Amino acid sequence: MLAALGAVLCAAAWVVAPIIRGGSPGSSSSTVAAASEPAPAKPKPVVVAPKPTLPPQQRIKPLVPGVAKVITEVPTAGNEVALTFDDGTCASCVKRIVDFLEKSGTHATFFPNGTYGASWDPQAARIRALVENGQLTLGNHTFSHGAATQIGSAAFGADLQRNEAWIEKTFKLTGRPWVRPPYGDYNSGTLAAAGEAGYKRVIMWSGTVADSDLRSEPYILNAIHYWAKPGRIILMHANYPPTSKALPKILKILQRKHLQPVTIAELLKGA
Questions:
Q1: Phi, psi at residue 262, to the nearest 5°?
Q2: At what angle do helices 247-256 and 217-227 cross, to 10 degrees?
């Protein structure tokens, strides 16, 4: 009798014990542990960065004639200086300059000629991306690179329009309102033609490395040492390898002089 009662009590204890521990008959400890684990956290929503867009001034829009203003420097620009590159007769130089801008984050301005399209076309998508990021301004240097006062106002205006058409087709943006007349050559008639073509900012320069002809790298660096000052617009060319190869050293010179390279748009504060 006592033995039978003891057996019943033992069986009851075996059934009750797992219930006290929060389980049920036949459940394993791993099942109990899994039931007590918190639910997995919900994944955070993926935030898609906005796609860069062109600055308003470089979006293609209807031509608006105006009065052309000649600019050689901006004395109120603080520690800013504008590095500008004309022409583009050397395809490898254009590529090296674009490589440098992408790698260093340096800001600059291009004034290309459509007649050298073979140098610019392969870099068109990269150049547009730099413009979208606000790192590059693109202006007009005419299609054929003729001297404005020699070819006359009408021909100059037509050449501007031809280069504008090439810029729009190649880079999917406008070069307006920035124009640099080849050789810095202009008069009242060609200024009027530029204004009629929507080019209201005639960008000259207040310093140059004189590299429209072949110059050595030391010559170019010495010129930067001499000319680079606050508010200056520095004329350079994408025509010979020494200029593009000197760019890392040029940037170091500007840093030592506490000068910040900016685009023409930034130097003029969008004016």
A1: -135, 170
A2: 30
Both tokens of residue 64? 């608006």
Residue 36 has pLDDT above 70, yes or no: no
Contacts of 162 (CB under 8 A, 6+ apart): 114, 142, 143, 144
What pTM does this model have? 0.81
Contact 90, 238 (CB under 8 A): yes
115-152 core/surface letters (b: 16 or more CB in 10 A; e: else): bbbebbbebeeebbebbbeebbbbbbbbbbbbebeebe
CA nearest neighbour of 142 among 113, 167, 166: 113
Q: Could you tell me which of 35, 77, 73, 58 has the C-alpha nearest to residue 232?
A: 73
| CA pair distance 178, 58, nearest whole angstrom | 10
Domain ranges of the chain: 87-267
Mean pLDDT confidence for 60-83? 95
CATH of domain 87-267: 3.20.20.370
Return the residue matching tokens 């068109």: 124
What is the per-residue pLDDT across 118-161, written as a single tens digit (0 to 9) for each?
999 999 999 999 999 999 999 999 999 999 999 999 999 999 99
Check: CB of residue 106 under 8 Å from CB of residue 133.
no
- Tokens 């940037």 map to which residue? 251
pLDDT at position 21 is 42
CB-CB neighbours of 35 under 10 Å: 10
Distance CA 102, CA 131 (A): 11
Distance CA 164, CA 173 (A): 9
Total residue length of the chain: 271
Contact 136, 110 (CB under 8 A): yes
